[in-house]
TrEMBL record:
Residues 1-166 form the Exonuclease domain. This is DNA polymerase III subunit epsilon. It holds the Pfam family RNase_T. DNA polymerase III contains a core (composed of alpha, epsilon and theta chains) that associates with a tau subunit. This core dimerizes to form the POLIII' complex. PolIII' associates with the gamma complex (composed of gamma, delta, delta', psi and chi chains) and with the beta chain to form the complete DNA polymerase III complex. It comes from Polaribacter filamentus. GO terms for molecular function: 3'-5' exonuclease activity; DNA binding; DNA-directed DNA polymerase activity. InterPro entries: DnaQ, GIY-YIG_endonuc_sf, Ribonucl_H, RNaseH-like_sf, RNaseH_sf.
Amino acid sequence: MYAILDIETTGGKFNEEGITEIAIYKFDGHRVVDQFISLVNPEKKIQAFVVKLTGINNEMLRNAPKFFEAAKRIVEITKDCILVAHNTSFDYRILQTEFERLGFDFRRNTLCTVELSQQLILDQPSYSLGKLTRSLGIPMTERHRASGDALATVQLFKLLLEKDTEKTIIQESIKYFDRRLEKEKLKNLIDSIPNILGVFYIHNAKGKVIYIGKGKSIKTEINKLFLKITKRAVKIQERANTVSFDRAGNELFTRLKYYIELEKLTPKFNFKKKFKITLDNFNNDNFIIVDKGREVEENAIILIEDNIVFGYGYTNLALQEKDLSVLKSVLTVIENKEVAKHLIKNYLNKNSVKK
């Protein structure tokens, strides 16, 4: 069963809108079997541009039921249904906000006819409801009124069901309120990551790095991130498409790689770390730090020249320790030398290593 709906609102600030009209058509995949259409008194003023767009004004809503009076009927007609709308994220958010004000947790699985149309009806100049239905020859009455828009969405959804000949696209496009598909995707991402010390990168569907993390066990850190329910964590989870990682070999390289990449990539969901940079010099102007590499017989190398961090990398020092130019050729030059110096000095002080 599907509950195909459209909602008109007062307009206003995000999550402060009120519903002025709602239309829900219960659809069994072939025909409408139930419906609910009603004006709603939002108990707040409608914005002028919305009045002009919809024709609904405050005077029309004076004797209309308030949302709490319509809530029970909305729950009943949508029970065990998948909510369908043209831009479902908007209508679903508005409904959930209204129910939250009543202390009721309203949760339904959803489908969006915009997203489905983009997959099943290709190369349209616009996927707005008005222009799309016009180009497809779907009749529409009372544009920007809940009943007219919802009925047009019913006809559009019928067409989408017919075009989904493999019967997979619509099924795979359902957004479950319990996030079962997202959880399965995140579990697969976690399973693909080894239990190692290093840095990990979360990429969105376009391959862009949206978050960088680090840890002694990057698998554990990713798992913690995917279990969090903060707004930032949920946004990362929703956008996560792939995860890549760098094995570091040691704690110092983990920190260096992490902060260097933060500076370079500026991921959307990382907080920018501000350092109180120390201007103190190392005790020696020229030296090499040798630490544990990623593999047996590999060394992690940091080169300091003239009290400035030149670069870092991995190599077998035994083969190159007599030729500095060869060593430099395998190192990655560090651009943000002040941050690198700060991190290295702190690490050396913490671990009581003579500089």
